[in-house]
Amino acid sequence: MWRDALLVAGKDLRIEARSRVGAQQVAPFAVVVLIIFAFAFDADHTLMRSASAGLFWVAVLFAGVLTVQRSFALEAPDGLRDGLRLSGMDPAGIFLGKAAAVAGQLLVLEVVLAGGIAFLYSASLRGAGLLVLSAVLATVGLSAAGTVYGIVAAGLGVRETLLPLLLLPVVAPVLLAASKVWSDTLSGAPGAWGWLRILVIFAVVYIAAGVLAFGALLEES
After folding, report:
1. Which residues, 6 or more positions from 32, have their beta carbon under 8 angstroms from its beta carbon?
2. Is 172 helix (H, G, I), strand (E, B) or coil?
3. Number of domains, the chain
4. What are phi and psi of 11, to 5 degrees?
5. Which one-letter DSSP state was computed for residue 23?
6. Sign of torsion, CA 110 114 116 120?
7. What is this structure's pTM?
8. 78 conformational bin, left if phi > 0, alpha if psi -120 to 50, beta if neither
């Protein structure tokens, strides 16, 4: 399973590195989202700083949907998904590999977006350790859920329109908890660790669901 996961993750990441879709399309789109909100809140610097955590995760969500769609679009032409299905790889390994590739791309993007909120919103990135830990946990949950619903939408052939509708309600608790961790950490308020436990729970649940269900979903896609 782990060998197959590494093979799939390496394949997806190499394709993205060569195509540069993430760097040339997804990342600029996410940064533009932050810039638009920065101009909208330009007259109220206090509001900008207080809203920076939520806006950060909104940008990550938009980028995450695009990244998941791109992940499954790679196998759409020429029956490549059939080849993946018939390859003999462990379905759980395929799930973990695709989720890891999505998570890796999002984590790189989040570094860029964190610099964006520090520059555009004058947010002080205090508690860096807690911010990084919550970002990793939230990204794992978002990537795992996105991979599960990505294969569902790909099987129906309407991933561009159906995926956001399926994914948003499922990842809403993850985004809420991550936003609260970042908001409490940036403002110095207590309570971040309670929300962090929620992120751990959802990450474990979504990974377990993907490992158990991805094989059947892949067969139906």
Report:
1. none
2. helix
3. 1
4. -60, -50
5. I
6. positive
7. 0.86
8. left
Q: Give residue 17's identity as a one-letter amino acid code.
A: A
Q: What single-letter DSSP state applies at residue 22?
A: I
Q: Across residues 21-27, what is the average pLDDT?
A: 77
Closest among 181, 187, 219 to 49, alpha carbons compared? 187
For residue 8, give the nearest of 87, 140, 96, 104 by alpha carbon.
Answer: 96
Q: Residue 62: phi, psi to the nearest 5?
A: -60, -45
For 105-139, write each residue's pLDDT tens digit.
999 999 988 888 878 777 777 778 888 999 999 99
- Does residue 133 or residue 159 have the better pLDDT? 133
Q: What confidence score (pLDDT) does residue 43 get? A: 55
Report the C-alpha gap between 141 and 103 in whole angstroms.
Answer: 9
Rounded to an integer, what distance in angstroms lies between the CA atom of residue 107 and that of residue 111?
7
Residue 218 CA from chain centroid, whole number: 20
Domain with 131, as residue range(s), is 2-220
